[in-house]
Amino acid sequence: MRAMKNVVVLGATGLVGGAIVHALAREGHEVLGVGRNQAALERLAAGSPAVKCLVGDVGSDEAAESTARAALDALGRLDLVVASLNPPRSTFRLSERPTAELAQFLDRSLLTHLRAAKAFVARLGKGAVYAAIAGTSSDFAWPEHGHISVNQAAQRMLFRVLAQEYEASGVSFREYVIAAMVHDGSGAQGVSAAAVGEDFARLTAADFGGEAVVRFPRSQG
Predict the structure, then answer these.
(1) Cβ(56)–Cβ(36) below 8 Å
(2) Measured between alpha carbons, how far is residue 121 from residues 111, 124, 132 in Å?
(3) For residues 200, 186, 145 and 40, what is the CA-based torsion angle, rounded to 10 degrees?
(4) Which is higher by pLDDT, 3 or 156?
(5) How far apart are CA 135 and CA 127, in angstroms?
């Protein structure tokens, strides 16, 4: 019999995060969706009544610690944490903007991932999984979106470093790399968020097959 997991999804009100929440809930997992917007969380819960929701933030060390404590209190045990924390797209030419703007962006993106991982991994036991949603902009310089390429490349190295540093904890790190543009189901190109959620739920049931990095769709890997 398949073991059900207690799952926290950070960034649960985003397009991808929400799809993962719904897919995992349909599979019977105990899911806690975490986001900053109460109204958005209420809409998320309306789509999956079994889902628990938590208003939380990982934008600072203190907020991340508080959110992680509250998540553990809500579920009692954490088996899987999903960090779907990638920022919305925006155009940004690094050569034409003050360096402080890139620093601010990385604080809201890359360092948010670090804060979240430090707060939550400390509350995970042996055999638990910490999974980060990533993209393939790390593989190339995306015109007009160089800040996203820089962030995703740094993020992928960050998780390799964390996997090494936390190896003795028994917590496994996974990178789920979406190798296509994601749409809400109305797009003609790329993949739908629902398809991403369903694939992620299948991988969860199989403990991600032990792979450190998983790409979706597989055919583009």
Answers:
(1) yes
(2) 15, 5, 12
(3) -70
(4) 156
(5) 25
Tokens of residue 39, six digits = 């109204």
Per-residue model confidence as pLDDT tens digits over 171-219: 999 999 999 999 999 988 899 999 999 999 999 988 888 889 999 998 6
Please provide residue 168's backbone torsions phi and psi, each rounded to the nearest 5 degrees.
Answer: -70, -15
> What does the H/E/C string look like for the chain?
CCCCCEEEEECCCCHHHHHHHHHHHHCCCEEEEEECCHHHHHHHHHHCCCCEEEECCCCCHHHHHHHHHHHHHHHCCCCEEEECCCCCCCCECHHHCCHHHHHHHHHHCHHHHHHHHHHHHCCCCCCCEEEEEEEHHHHCCCCCEHHHHHHHHHHHHHHHHHHHHCHHHCCEEEEEEECCCEECCCCCCCEEHHHHHHHHHHHHHCHHHHCCEEEECHHHC
Place of tokens 């789920």: 176
Write the single-letter amino acid at 93: R
Is residue 7 a contact partner of residue 31, using CB atoms and an 8 Å limit?
yes
Query: Cβ neighbours of residue 207 under 8 Å, at least 6 residues apart?
Result: 129
221 pLDDT band, cuts 50/70/90, is very low
pTM of the entire predicted model: 0.94
Strand 191-192 and strand 129-135: pairing? unpaired
What is the set of domains in the chain, with CATH numbers?
Answer: 6-220 (3.40.50.720)
